[in-house]
């Protein structure tokens, strides 16, 4: 949980300066190896904060700067966010941007991977 709290502080400081750097930091070392739901939920909240803060014009450049692994992790977080009962318009825009860059394979990897975020 301490690692997620540190990541949250770093992401919040980057968020107002550089969205792409904040996104990459939020996606860094996702907690796929833990079974602790609180850690996964907190990390998801950090990523969703970044996604919610982005303007439409920032989506494509941010996604283009991601590696394939980061894109797959982002798609997992998009689906995790879509599962929450909240307004999801921004998440659908992120989904479209990641799908455009990563193709259908990105969706398949995000859905089929047993290592959840």
UniProtKB/TrEMBL annotation:
Entry GO CC: Arp2/3 protein complex
Compartments (UniProt record): Cytoplasm, Cytoskeleton
Chief site of localization: cytoplasm
InterPro entries according to UniProt: ARPC5, ARPC5_sf
Record bears the keyword Cytoplasm: yes
One of the Pfam families matching this protein, by short name: P16-Arc
One GO BP annotation of this record: Arp2/3 complex-mediated actin nucleation
Record has Cytoplasm as a keyword: yes
Keywords assigned by UniProt, alphabetized: Cytoplasm, Cytoskeleton
PANTHER family reported in the protein's UniProt record: ARP2/3 COMPLEX 16 KD SUBUNIT P16-ARC (PTHR12644)
Family: Belongs to the ARPC5 family.
Function as written in the Swiss-Prot or TrEMBL entry: Functions as component of the Arp2/3 complex which is involved in regulation of actin polymerization and together with an activating nucleation-promoting factor (NPF) mediates the formation of branched actin networks. Arp2/3 complex plays a critical role in the control of cell morphogenesis via the modulation of cell polarity development.
Protein's UniProt name: Actin-related protein 2/3 complex subunit 5
Naturally occurring in which organism (per UniProt): Tribonema minus
